[in-house]
Write a structure and sequence with these properties.
Number of domains: 3
CATH superfamily of the largest domain: Hypothetical protein, domain 2
Helix content: 40-55%
CATH class of the largest domain: Mainly Alpha
Order of helices and strands: HHEEHHHHHHHHHHHHHHHHEEEEEE
CATH architecture of the largest domain: Orthogonal Bundle
Distance between the termini: 104 Å
Number of helices: 18
CATH topology of the largest domain: Endonuclease III, domain 1
Number of strands: 8
Shape: extended
Radius of gyration: 44 Å
Strand order of the largest sheet: 3-6-7-8
Strand content: 5-15%
């Protein structure tokens, strides 16, 4: 059976590759290449200049005699294959090994267009948009906006909201200097981000009481980050806010003469301060209304009213500033934040209690569900007209927004019903059940 040199060489390479690990290092590949070169150098070349395997050329032959035809090496030795082979050097590596080495490396991610390495996308940073070409808008005021504003103001006067007593504008200490009050107002706004007013107010009270030397810039500069973080741990994202407050204190000392900036651009340049905080701080700390502070309540409610269709608070600000009178820029945030905390809440809006729904001024009003009646069982004393006091067991009490109805089953009189009796007028036994 004839066996060509090419098939023998191929079998030798396959056997060598199968014995190598798939995850071979560069050093092992280099050593294999050197061994392959050594094996190739052992090959001999016959008189005609054709390369012959060293095992075939070493077959024993007698002088003056032809090689035995039955010997396999003699048959292979007679064949003259005119193949051109390139000399191998000590640094050459077979193509199979080069493929393995390339696959072991982590190939760079290529773009699908021109094959060049794709650039990694930069990390997205929150935008601090203040002015732009879209801010110079010409917007017509919504129809009946004055009636909507007046009705909302009337509702806000009837219901007290958390922002009325614990808003960021009212958290600064009156006993401090104007500079310290401005700083406290700014810090309160920074803490209020994604935090309820009650939690923000509590954190401000802790800072005012626990910071050495009082709540001032010098105390913020000397306070350790761990201690400051512990004092404000109840607010949302307190770890990031601790870093922002410490960095802000250094900037105020080095750039603004230990006071807060008196411009919108300066306030927005501080870490952790966005457009809403900047406009509210400018109005509360410096007494200048240069824009509308639009938070989630203002953005959500004005879109529910149909005043505009915007997707971001900054777009809402631009739309409102285009037509809303400037004397209402300061009040609209406080008005709608309280309205959103009490009646037009984010989940489960109380449209049944809203005057705008009753006056058909809100296009987003939904039909209110009927008042749910609570049924409880109590033990009460019923004073009858003839002066006789009867104690009834298992009395059913039904409460709603009108009054209280009591149904008592008595052995002598049957069912007794008292209608529209005020809750505080019911003589309830202190040891009553339920």
């Amino acid at each position: 059976m004839r066996t060509s040199r090419l098939s023998r060489e191929t079998e030798r390479i396959v056997n060598a590759l199968s014995s190598c690990r798939r995850t071979s290092t560069r050093s092992s590949l280099r050593s294999y290449a050197q061994n392959a070169d050594t094996a190739n150098s052992n090959a001999t070349v016959n008189e005609a200049g054709h390369e012959v395997d060293s095992e075939l050329s070493s077959a024993p032959t007698s002088p003056g005699k032809e090689p035995d035809a039955s010997h396999p090496s003699s048959k292979l030795g007679k064949r003259k294959r005119h193949t051109t082979t390139e000399p191998t050097t000590s640094t050459s590596i077979p193509s199979e090994l080069r493929t393995i080495r390339r696959s072991s490396r982590k190939a760079p991610k290529l773009s699908s267009e021109d094959g060049t390495p794709a650039q990694r996308k930069p990390r997205r940073q929150p935008a601090k948009h203040i002015t732009g070409p879209n801010d110079n808008l010409t917007v017509s005021p919504p129809a009946n906006w004055e009636k909507v504003y007046a009705a909302t103001t009337a509702m806000r006067k009837r219901v007290l909201a958390p922002v009325d007593t614990m808003g960021c504008e009212s958290l600064a200490e009156d006993s401090r200097s104007p500079r310290d009050r401005r700083l406290q107002t700014l810090v309160a706004l920074m803490l209020s981000s994604q935090t309820k007013d009650t939690v923000t107010a509590a954190a401000m009270k802790i800072l005012q009481a626990k910071l050495p030397g009082g709540f001032c810039l010098e105390s913020l500069l000397t306070a350790e980050p761990e201690e400051l973080n512990r004092l404000i741990e109840k607010v949302g994202f307190h770890n990031n806010k601790t870093k922002f407050i410490k960095a802000m204190a250094v900037i105020l000392r080095d750039r603004y003469g230990s006071d807060i900036p008196d411009t919108i651009d300066g306030l927005v340049s501080l870490p952790g301060v966005g457009p809403k905080m900047a406009y509210l701080c400018m109005s509360a700390a410096w007494g200048r209304d240069e824009g509308i502070g639009v938070d989630v309540h203002v953005h959500r409610i004005t879109n529910l009213w149909g005043w505009h269709k915007t997707s971001t608070p900054e777009r809402t600000r631009a739309e409102l500033e285009a037509w809303l009178p400037k004397d209402k820029w300061h009040d609209i945030n406080h008005l709608l934040v309280g309205f959103g905390q009490t009646i037009c809440v984010p989940v489960g809006r109380k449209c049944g209690e809203c005057d705008l729904a009753k006056l058909a001024l809100c296009p987003s009003a939904v039909a209110s569900s009927p008042v749910k009646k609570k049924r409880v069982k109590k033990e009460v004393q019923i004073d009858r007209e003839n002066g006789q006091v009867v104690k009834a067991e298992g009395v059913k009490v039904e409460e709603d927004d009108v009054g209280v109805k009591i149904e008592a089953e008595l052995e002598s009189d049957g069912n007794v019903q008292i209608e529209a009796l005020a809750a505080e007028d019911i003589p309830v036994d202190e040891n009553a059940k339920g």
